[in-house]
From TrEMBL:
Residues 62-177 form the Tetrahydrofolate dehydrogenase/cyclohydrolase catalytic domain. It comes from Trifolium pratense (Red clover). HAMAP family: THF_DHG_CYH. GO terms for cellular component: cytosol. Catalyzes the oxidation of 5,10-methylenetetrahydrofolate to 5,10-methenyltetrahydrofolate and then the hydrolysis of 5,10-methenyltetrahydrofolate to 10-formyltetrahydrofolate. PROSITE patterns: THF_DHG_CYH_1 (PS00766), THF_DHG_CYH_2 (PS00767). Keywords: Hydrolase, Multifunctional enzyme, NADP, One-carbon metabolism, Oxidoreductase, Photorespiration. Belongs to the tetrahydrofolate dehydrogenase/cyclohydrolase family. GO terms for molecular function: methenyltetrahydrofolate cyclohydrolase activity; methylenetetrahydrofolate dehydrogenase (NADP+) activity. Residues 198-345 form the Tetrahydrofolate dehydrogenase/cyclohydrolase NAD(P)-binding domain. This is Putative tetrahydrofolate synthase. It catalyses: (6R)-5,10-methylene-5,6,7,8-tetrahydrofolate + NADP(+) = (6R)-5,10-methenyltetrahydrofolate + NADPH; (6R)-5,10-methenyltetrahydrofolate + H2O = (6R)-10-formyltetrahydrofolate + H(+). The keyword Hydrolase applies. PANTHER family: C-1-TETRAHYDROFOLATE SYNTHASE, CYTOPLASMIC, C-1-TETRAHYDROFOLATE SYNTHASE, CYTOPLASMIC-RELATED.
Length: 350
């Protein structure tokens, strides 16, 4: 498998990152797969440890929580630099309609994340029976508010609302979710640049970059074709010169197609759907799914699992994102990054 390893030698940033992660790995022209061991052996033992490698190996865990923290630190430094230089503090407005518990949790996490980097957050919570017109009024107010650089309408919206109308109303210069059709259109076109890229797919690609995993020329399979993850993820991978297939609910042979992938991005919302048998040895797996499943042993009564069967995948893949602690924290970090980018652009600050 060494010759088909999709890893490149890491940049210095990556090397730093890898050193701080749980598993020591040898990075270089050969494969990154290494021995089964959840706990890292001391580095001085690594050689003999690796030399005895014969059978079972386990994927490297891609630590989204750690990378997200690094990115938040970088953003915090930029936010204070901008504040000192031009006196502007980036502002993010979040509109939440209805009382879905998961949405409320996400919005709370976004607010906390804003605070942690010095971004101002404005939040409006509207009852489920709010009219579309009222939501449009809020958007229009934030569109015109110079202290707001990003506007996020938490999805899903209540069913009586036309999501398309609402998303189209966000000024493209403040569309930090990257959901405006003009931003998506530019993402799809060669030679064009969107103002913003959707946060979750952007976070997936950022993880690959920061772990030194090359995308160019690789076979990528995206499982799921949603507007917010699957579709933009496929577009982004294609922009990165991958050869991309999209597997969806009407695909007749999803397992066979997925098994050809060097890189898998799973975003379907089906717990443990992708089994070990779907995965080519040494593939890299980015698991976007965040699915609650019953777990009586947990204090919450449930636990979160991905779209990929982690226990099986970790034995086959070369690297994998965990759930939680993988893509989720990256989504929020990319939202903060988009908000900072927006504030810089609006104020012509480099
Ligand atoms: N307009 C809009 N933009 C969004 O970006 C958007 C949205 N609507 N609607 C809902 C989804 C979902 N989403 C998540 C963000 C972070 C975590 C996250 O940080 N999860 C953590 C913690 C999970 C936990 O323990 O609860 C983790 O995976 O480690 C999860 C999910 C953003 N979304």
């Amino acid at each position: 498998m060494a010759s088909s390893s999709i890893f490149n030698p890491p940049s210095s940033t990556t090397a730093l990152l890898l050193r701080r992660t749980r598993h020591p790995i040898h990075v270089g022209p050969t494969s990154l797969r290494f021995l089964t061991s959840q706990s890292a052996p001391p580095s001085s033992h690594l050689v003999s440890f690796a030399a005895s490698a014969t059978e079972a190996s386990v994927a490297k865990v891609i630590d989204g929580k750690l990378v997200a923290k690094q990115i938040r630190d970088e953003i915090a430094a930029e936010v204070s630099r901008m504040k000192e230089a031009v006196g502007v503090i980036p502002g993010l407005a979040v509109i939440l309609v209805g009382d879905r518990k998961d949405s409320a949790t996400y919005v709370r996490n976004k607010k906390k994340a804003c605070e942690s980097v010095g971004i101002n957050s404005l939040e409006v919570n509207l009852p489920a029976d709010t009219t579309e017109e009222q939501v449009l009024n809020y958007i229009s107010g934030y569109n015109d508010d110079p202290s707001v650089h990003g506007i996020l309408v938490q999805l899903p919206l209540p069913s009586h609302m036309n999501e398309q109308n609402v998303l189209n109303a966000v000024r493209i210069e403040k569309d930090v979710d990257g959901f405006h059709p003009l931003n998506i259109g530019r993402l799809a076109m060669r030679g064009r640049e969107p103002l913003f890229v959707p946060c979750t797919p952007k976070g997936c690609i950022e993880l690959l970059h920061r772990y030194g995993i090359s995308i160019k020329g690789k076979r990528a399979v995206v499982i799921g074709r949603s507007n917010i993850v699957g579709m933009p993820a496929a577009l982004l991978l294609q922009r990165e010169d991958a050869t991309v297939s999209v597997v969806h609910s009407r695909t007749s042979n999803p397992e066979e197609i997925t098994r050809q992938a060097d890189i898998i991005i799973a975003a379907v919302g089906q717990p443990n759907m992708v089994r070990g048998s779907w995965i080519k040895p040494d593939a890299v797996i980015i698991d976007v799914g965040i699915n609650p499943v019953d777990d009586p042993s947990s204090s919450r009564g449930y636990k979160l699992v991905g779209d990929v069967c982690y226990e099986e995948a970790i034995k086959v893949a070369s690297a994998i994102t965990p759930v939680p602690g993988g893509v989720g924290p990256m989504t929020i970090a990319m939202l903060l990054q988009n908000t900072l980018t927006s504030a810089k652009r609006i104020n012509s600050f480099q």
